[in-house]
Amino acid sequence: MSAKPFLKWAGGKSHLIKQYVALLPQELFEGKIEIYVEPFIGSGALYFYLSQRFNFKKVYLYDVNKELILAYSVIKNNVEKLIEVLHKYTKDYRLLDDAHKSTYYYCIREKFNTELKTIDFTTYSTDWIIRTAELIFLNKTCYNGLFRVNKKGVFNVPFGRYKNPTIFDAENLEKTSTQLKKANIEACDFKMCKSHIDKKTLVYLDPPYRPISNTANFTSYSHVKFNDNEQKRLAKFYTNMNKTGAKLMLSNSDPRTHNPNDNFFDDLYKEFNIHRVYASRIISCDASKRGTITELLITNY
Ligand SMILES: C[S@@+](CC[C@H](N)C(=O)[O-])C[C@H]1O[C@@H](n2cnc3c(N)ncnc32)[C@H](O)[C@@H]1O
Q: What's the whole-number mean pLDDT along residues 292-299?
C-alpha cells in the first residue's frame, strides 16, 4: 500500500489523480525531471502519488497554512511520538458514549484554539507533536472533515457525529514520514518557491479554487482569502515561471460550469494549454449540488 493523505482537505485531489497522470509531462517518464515543487500542498495527494513512482532529487512543499506545515514537519521528524499520542487520544475517545464523545471533541477544540495564542510556529518543539495529534483528531471527527477557521484564525467546525471514524492509520503515517524525508517543507506564500525552479523542475499548483457560484464558496483554509486578485497574481507568477523552462501544471475550478460566458481563466491563461477534466463536487452543504462538473488543468507543455 502507498502513502496517502493523512488529512481530509478541502480540494484534495485523490479522485483526480488518474486523469492528471495522463496529463503529466513526458519528461517525467523520461527521467528528466529532478526537482518537484508544490506551493499549495494541502493534503498532498499528487505529491504522495508521484513520490512513490519517481525519484526526485529535491522536493519543495509549501503552504501558507501554518498548522498544516507544522503537522508535516512533525510527521517528517517525529512520527513515532505522534503515533503514541494519537493512540492515546483514540483510546480515550473510543471508550466514551456518544454524548461524551461530543464533549471530548469540544474540549480538544477549545484546547487547540486556546493554545493558538501561545504556540511558537517558528521553533520545533514537543508542543508541535501534541498540536499535530489534535489537528488530526479534530480533522477526522469534525463535521465534513474540514479545516476551516474564522477571521481570527480560530478553528470553528462543529462535531461530526460519525459512528466509528478512523482517526489515524499508523502504517500510513510511517510511510508518509518516509516520503517526506527528502522534502523541504515551509509555511509561506506561493511566490517563495521561485528560487528553486529550473528547466528540470515540475511545479504543480493547486490554489484555493475560484468559487463557481455564490453558494459554493469554501475558501477559508486560513484567515486570508484567495480572491480574484490573488488568482491574477498567481497567473502572473505562472507566466514568469514559464520563462525558466520548468514544466507547470495548475488546477482550478471551471467558471464555464455555471456560466458558459465566464472566461476568467481562459483569458488569464490564454498562452497555455487548458484541459478540462471531470470531477465530483465534494464540498457543498446542499446534497443536490453534488454532481459531475468539469475542472481545469492548465499546462505549459
Ligand atoms: C486546493 S487546496 C490544495 C489541495 C491539495 N492539492 C490536496 O490534494 O489536498 C489549496 C491550498 O492552498 C493554500 N493556500 C492558500 N493561499 C495560499 C498562498 N498565498 N500561498 C500558498 N498556499 C496558499 C491553502 O492553505 C490550501 O491548503
A: 91
